[in-house]
Structure to design on (490 residues):
RNA sequence: CGGGAUGUAGCGCAGUCCGGUAGCGUACACGUCUGGGGGGCGUGUGGUCGCAGGUUCGAAUCCUGUCAUCCCGACCA
């Protein structure tokens, strides 16, 4: 492990990569663009997954599983869908290998060519809607509210750990409804679920909004999203919820009979978040010392480190910590006592700092003598000495404080890096500083494209707002209904 | 797919220009002193130098080919 990590200021990109390695979250595999998610990183993902899964179930959804492989013909049924994904699909063409002539290796058996090639799913709309056709006949069969936890493959040209990998883990919700209104309500509901998760668990503030036509999901009539700001001021799309209209129902001939017996196509939504959220989590809170985790998602919330010389001292401290640990665990707090004699206390301090454990407790002979324990919080790096008697209550409260402090800190950072601009000149001058730029836009793809080509900034979303304030497009001067968010994005 | 760079011990690197016994840091193993912020000292293990050819008495080093990865673009969650 590198003793000295790269700082954010030096090289934000390298800082991120080093951090992911040093915190033992993930590493590159030998397969291009694919990563190995290591146990500590996977534990964080599991926490995210568990919380989200409960949220989905609380909103009436059930989990199911559909095949990894999709017949090639399915993908061509929805025109814009195929256009959006065709260029990044992995394709299975054969089903067997054979030994090479020299007997030293294997090769694809040319006789084992598939009649119809199989696509490794880049997303599951097509195979799921092919099933829904058989599941839906009547309005009584609706709605269908299904979620799938799965891996998908998108053959990206350039990848980054967690943020963009060729294979990634995600969840994809796929719902079917009798009415347009119900489907739209579902789309909005799930966006709010994502926003709730981002803010209240990841401590990551997000802006809810709508994608422009050109940024929409391939096959959607409307794409809603949550956008977060990373510490370098770049935007990260953290989750999307799509209103698919009747596009997939039409492509897969999924009709239902309503109460009057009239046949109509089913209305659809799909929504997803991925392991990309891991990257978002890292880039939202972490500092030059390492990972910083919000308590609600930290695999270890409190770590206890004993400081001792003799075995007798160790046992007395261990006893104290284990008693405290039992009480903490009873309150649902994830506690670890690190009694590893092979590592010295200083080493452990750094280890848990790099791994972002929210609270560290340390106790040595002096503390033992005085009935005290040293408490260090990861977010502010403050250390204090507290009475052991009060440790339980202090820790319990502090976890809540850290959780809210991280959210407040991120909100402040976003506020400090969000700017209103009214002229394209100013926009071009300042866009490289990073941040969100609220500007008026005439609503045309031409203007959007122009800005993108000239500045590399895109419209992240048209934010939801109760009271839209009209104005004039910063580029063309044409009327604009409200300000939209321009930013450079991951 | 365009531009740039790199493949040498588990990890991070030097050595390559100018060919001549495979090096350093870290990690790992053992011993010892230690222990309140990544310890000190000592001993030791670990390498087909990405792969394939070629030049040479001799190649990590020179030549040709090839594969892979990373960074910057284009594409994208």
């Amino acid at each position: 492990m590198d003793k000295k990590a790269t700082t954010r200021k030096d090289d934000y990109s390298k800082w991120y990569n080093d951090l992911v390695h040093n915190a033992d979250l993930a590493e590159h595999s030998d397969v291009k663009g694919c990563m190995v998610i290591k146990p500590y990183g996977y534990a964080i993902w599991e926490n995210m997954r568990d919380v989200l899964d409960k949220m989905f179930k609380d909103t009436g959804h059930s989990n199911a599983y559909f095949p990894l492989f999709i017949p090639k013909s399915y993908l061509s049924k929805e025109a814009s869908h195929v256009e959006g994904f065709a260029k990044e699909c992995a394709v299975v063409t054969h089903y067997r290998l054979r030994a090479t002539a020299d007997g030293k290796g294997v090769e694809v058996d040319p006789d084992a060519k598939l009649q119809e090639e199989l696509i490794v799913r880049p997303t599951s709309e097509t195979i799921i809607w092919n099933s829904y056709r058989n599941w839906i006949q009547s309005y009584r069969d609706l709605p269908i509210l299904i979620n799938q936890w799965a891996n998908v493959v998108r053959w990206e040209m350039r990848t980054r750990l967690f943020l963009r990998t060729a294979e990634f883990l995600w969840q994809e919700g796929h719902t079917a409804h009798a009415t347009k209104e119900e489907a739209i309500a579902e789309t909005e509901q799930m966006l709010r679920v994502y926003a709730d998760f981002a803010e209240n668990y990841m401590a990551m503030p997000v802006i809810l909004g709508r994608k422009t036509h050109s940024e929409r999901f391939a096959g959607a009539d409307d794409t809603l999203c949550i956008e977060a700001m990373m510490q370098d001021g770049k935007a990260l799309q953290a989750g999307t919820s799509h209103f698919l209209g009747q596009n997939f129902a039409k492509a897969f001939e999924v009709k239902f009979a309503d109460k009057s017996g009239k046949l109509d196509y089913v209305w659809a939504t799909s929504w997803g978040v991925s392991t990309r959220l891991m990257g978002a989590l890292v880039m939202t809170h972490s500092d030059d010392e390492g990972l910083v985790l919000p308590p609600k998602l930290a695999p270890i919330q409190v770590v206890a480190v004993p400081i001792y010389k003799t075995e007798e001292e160790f046992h007395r401290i261990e006893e104290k910590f284990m008693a405290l640990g039992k009480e903490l665990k009873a309150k649902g707090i994830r506690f670890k006592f690190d009694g590893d004699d092979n590592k010295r206390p200083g080493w452990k301090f750094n280890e848990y700092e790099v791994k972002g454990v929210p609270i560290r407790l340390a106790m040595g002979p002096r503390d033992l003598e005085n009935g005290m324990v040293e408490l260090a919080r990861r977010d502010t790096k403050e250390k204090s000495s507290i009475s052991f008697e009060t440790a339980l209550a202090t820790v319990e409260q502090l976890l809540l404080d850290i959780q809210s402090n991280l959210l407040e800190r991120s909100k402040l950072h976003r506020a400090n890096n969000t700017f209103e601009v009214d002229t394209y000149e100013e926009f071009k001058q300042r866009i490289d500083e990073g941040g969100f730029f609220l500007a008026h836009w005439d609503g045309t793809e031409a203007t959007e494209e122009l800005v993108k080509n000239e500045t590399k900034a895109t419209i992240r979303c048209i934010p939801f707002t109760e009271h839209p304030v009209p104005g004039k497009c910063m580029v063309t001067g044409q009327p604009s209904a409200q300000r939209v968010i321009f930013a450079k994005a991951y």
Q: What stands out?
A: The domain at 295-413 of chain A is CATH 3.40.50.800 (Rossmann fold). Chain A has a mean pLDDT of 93. DSSP finds 14 helices and 27 strands in chain A.
